[in-house]
Design brief:
Radius of gyration of chain A: 22 Å
Order of helices and strands of chain B: HHEHEHEHEHEHEHEHEEHHH
Keywords (chain B): Signal
Helix content of chain B: 40-55%
Radius of gyration of chain B: 21 Å
Helix content of chain A: over 70%
CATH superfamily of the largest domain in chain B: Bordetella uptake gene, domain 1
Number of domains of chain B: 2
Number of strands of chain A: 2
Pfam families (chain B): TctC
Protein name (chain B): Tripartite tricarboxylate transporter substrate binding protein BugD
Strand order of the largest sheet of chain A: 1-2
Structural class of chain A: mainly alpha
Largest interface: A-B, 59 and 61 residues
Shape of chain B: globular
Number of helices of chain B: 12
Family (chain B): Belongs to the UPF0065 (bug) family.
Oligomer: heterodimer
InterPro entries (chain B): BUG, Bug_dom1
Number of helices of chain A: 22
Distance between the termini of chain B: 35 Å
Amino acid sequence: MELLDNLGLGFSVALSFQNLFYCFAGALLGTLIGVLPGLGPIATIAMLLPITFGLPPVSALIMLAGIYYGAQYGGSTTAILINLPGESSSVVTAIDGHQMAKQGKAGTALATAALGSFFAGTVATFLLALFAPPLAELALKFGPPEYFALMVLGLVASVTLASGSVVKALAMIVLGLLLGLSGQDIYTGVPRLTFNVDELADGFDFVALAMGMFGLSEIIRNLEDEHNRTLVAAKVKGLMLSKEDFKAIIGPVVRGTVLGSFLGILPGGGAMLSSFAAYSVEKKISKTPRRFGKGAIEGVAGPESANNAGAQTSFIPMLTLGIPSNPVMALMIGALIIQGITPGPNVVTDKPDLFWGVIASMWVGNFMLVLLNLPLIGLWVRLLTVPYHVMYPAIIAFCCIGVYSVNNNTFDVYTMALFGILGYALVKLDCEPAPLLLGFVIGPMLEEYLRRAMLISRGDPMVFVTRPISAILLLLAAIALVVVLLPSVQKGREEAFKE
Amino acid sequence: MFAKATRAACAVFRGIAAVPVVVVGIALASAGAHAQTFPSRPITVIVPFAAGGPTDTVARLVAESMTKTLGQQVIVENVGGAGGTRGAGQVAKATPDGYTLLLHHIGQATAPSLYRKLPYKVTDFETAGLITPVPMTLIAKPGFEPKTIADVITYVKANKEKVTYGNAGVGSASHLCGMLFMAATGTPLTTVPYQGTGPAMNDLVGGQIDLMCDQTTNTTGQIKGGKVKAYAVTTKDKVPSLPDLPTLQASGLKDFEVTIWHGLYAPKGTPADVVAKLNQALGVALDDPKVASRFADLGTEPEAKNRRSPEFHKQFLTDEVAKWKPVIEAAGVYAD
């Protein structure tokens, strides 16, 4: 059977002593760098890219893949432990993950993330091996109208991220959209909402925004409350999952994997959407949606699995077509070019050892990540017992270094400080930062796809409904909107009747 | 990580060493002894784009060889943002001692016309030599009707209402090439901008847009894999890696020539003997068979020997600035 031959070739490449070593080194380095606040996969890979230049192409790509998973997992670790998401997908993990940590269940949250990721990674690897070329063709069917519809759906779903008031969540989304508008208009080059600040030409930096809104504001808030400060440290317990925990996460992990595998294939934001799509789904089908935002284990398991499955399947367009689906894949393509390999549709046939070796190494990388991280969980959790007067300054210092090193720009550090204060004010007003961040990420894409679709259709808005995929997605968005608004409308009516 | 560590170490070193270096620098300037002592510490080459892009690739290949020639580490640092002008601006303001360099592409010549508020001038740099002219290709979605480049020109003229042209954003190479193509054929097409070449290529392969012009680095794989239709190259001569493609010049577009040429720059005021030494090390890199073979993988080749001097680079830069000014002004697009 061809598939077995191919996988056999892949594993023979990935399991060679040399490649196992690079896979492990990549996963380890990725975890260590990624665990620093603010350093998500993109920054970590950009930083570590040069060390792979001296390696043979397959080893280099295997190591980079290892760095990618490692950094992603490292990013989730900081999101859970100290509420510092380094990239958009771990924003969702921070919501319930950090609440779990506060309740002393940091170990459980981290183990859930690791095991969920491993399961998702395994499934996605086989999906990739079986269906990569047809899936890539499917992704090509997604044009600007389809992406626009997908973003609309994403935006509607992001309301469910808030555990409190729907109105406040909507306000936060709109504020996020507004912040996302800042920067140069890609269609005309005209600067918008930049207030003559040159550094804003490329808009606000996501990492600076996220770390300010989540991390810094959390620190400020903790400072005002003497009693809460020792909360996390006092309650560290149980590092492993109980039987009940396993039961609770199986469903979310499977659903997250399916969602993530599908959305990850879509270039341009698909993988990013997967983690919070998974969160929305879990919250919607949960019998006790009130627990979400207060440390629900499903809120960690679903998104983390989706995130990892998406990370895996986002390799599909890159490996089969040579088209980067996100900045991380663009870096991988850069690495390939430096290695003297021209990325393109011919890589599968011309370099089967590379193609299948990388696919096999994804699974090996995920396995190593579990091996590496389950023992490390104890260490990470113990970090939380560091006294706050030592921990806070250290976190702030690392945040500054992390934010600075993304673009080598001091402006981003000031941005982070500013959003730290804004984030604190919002927390005081009971407004949650997660919907804001998603609005910030989705907003520019929404606009870009809308304008691109209109340009190509020459201003005819009917493209959104005449193209079937786009029509279905928009219909789903409409249904989701009704589902989201219905309870609050009903509640409003009940309250009206009371009077 | 090692590179980062070295870079961090260098930054610290630079900070500590700044004061004595200035003093020593002044002393040496009077003695005119630069070239004998240069370089005595690592050199930073700023690439004004993200790591992993085509320009970064060129820089890293050249830097590796120059490190061997100069006997000091040549470090590539990526300072992206604002279409390459942020990194360039940083080098324009750097100490002119040859330890901070810029490796930039054609954008160095188009920025003065694209940016009305550019915080530096092209004359704020010493030219240290051209590196490589990366060719571009005119490609179309699979199933695009025209068979030859002549057909394409007739087709776009007859269907200018219908044809869409994709590019990687204002000021990008694909944007420049498209502007020149529209000017040469006299057909303004609907331009669809993207955030970079990747997403644009995705939509071209998926048939969402019709035409695109992009560098061989990005297109060769797609052309050879049969995922896009290729019509012509934008260089004066045919491109060895794509022998079947005619040039646009030979296809009736007079004087049509665009390459993504790359050059090395030092801040203005860098001593001439230091620039000469850098130029010489660059020349050794371009003669390095390993560099040449990697360039070939990118679909390009090292700059011809008679075009490698700092003087040629200076004149070429001036000519390119003059060439693009009217094209950009006629299109009325600005990046700020």
